[in-house]
Write a structure and sequence with these properties.
The protein is of the alpha/beta class. The protein contains 13 helices and twelve strands.
């Protein structure tokens, strides 16, 4: 799957991923009104509004980008109806030819990790038959239970030719409370980066491992250090746009070949219709998806300019 992701990045010239993280407050009123008229102000109505919102954005941008990253919590908050929409979103994005990174941040003891891995990336055995459940192409994983929490995911990735992005240095302001703690003379995130490189060395695609890392755009200096610790790991970079990251902050996340990183923007794209710069271009809530397309084009240009492309 890492080979496919790289192929799509090269084809689109867009090392970006759109985070499908829909808060109900982002959904334009016309979509909300239509969903509530059909299902009422219920979890089913909320899920329908989110589904139509996602579908409009994907239809507007799928030809520009290689991948999407739905964050499962934004769907789980609506219960089973939301989880159904998460599945519909994954399936629809696959129909559009997109790589799907399931932002699920799983990680537990071995047997529980094995179940998470089967559900999100692999197959679940039911009697004599096996079934794919969510069927994302990559999943985000929390490594802080150690190797026995990661190995079940790696085993499934080998079987299914899928991939992982392991949390190393996250983009949130308080990430340093634990991740920056100095242990044996270096910050904890560097120790985690070394483990990612170790795990990934046995899981290589053509040029990069399918065991990647999550490193926030809001910490470019740490990104510079981690890029050298994990030269063969693809880095998923959250924190662009609404969290403050810009193209100029991202250069060190990439290797000399122009590859090695894929940058995520969520609300900066999916809620772009609320930004003044796009309102001034005639965007209204009714054509919200057009703003998402403009925001993707602007992000591509920003990153390409920073990389000297």
């Amino acid at each position: 799957m890492i080979n496919m992701l790289i192929e799509k990045i090269k084809k689109t010239n867009a090392p970006i991923v759109v985070g499908l993280d829909p808060m109900l407050s982002y959904v334009p009123k016309p979509l909300l009104d239509a969903a509530f008229a059909q299902f009422g102000e219920t979890p089913e109505g909320a899920a329908e509004a989110v589904w139509q919102y996602n579908k409009g954005i994907v239809d507007a941008v799928y030809d520009l980008i290689p991948a999407v990253k739905p964050q499962i919590a934004m769907y789980e908050q609506f219960g089973i109806e939301g989880v159904k929409v998460f599945q519909k979103t994954v399936d629809y994005c696959h129909e559009k030819g997109l790589v799907v990174i399931g932002d699920v941040k799983r990680g537990d003891i071995g047997s529980t990790s094995a179940a998470y891995a089967a559900g999100h990336l692999g197959r679940v055995q039911i009697g004599s038959k096996s079934y794919q459940a969510f069927n994302e192409d990559f999943a985000t994983v929390n490594p802080y239970l150690g190797t026995d929490g990661i190995k079940p995911f790696i085993d499934v990735c080998r079987e299914e030719k899928k991939g992982l992005f392991i949390l190393v240095k996250t983009s949130n302001p308080s990430s340093g409370e634990f991740q920056d703690r100095i242990i044996d003379g270096k910050p904890l995130y560097e120790h985690v980066g070394e483990k990612v490189a170790e795990w990934g060395a046995d899981c290589m695609g053509d040029s990069y491992s399918y065991i990647g890392a999550v490193v926030g755009a809001t910490y470019p200096e740490q990104g510079w250090a981690l890029r050298r610790i994990m030269p063969k790991a693809f880095i998923l970079v959250p924190g662009y746009g609404a969290q403050g990251g810009q193209g100029k902050d991202l250069v060190h996340f990439f290797n000399a070949d122009g590859l090695g990183a894929i940058v995520n923007s969520s609300r900066g794209i999916i809620a772009a219709y609320r930004q003044e710069k796009y309102k001034e271009q005639g965007i209204t809530p009714e054509n919200y998806a057009d703003a998402s397309r403009l925001a993707v084009e602007d992000m591509i240009a920003d990153i390409a300019g920073a990389l000297g492309a």
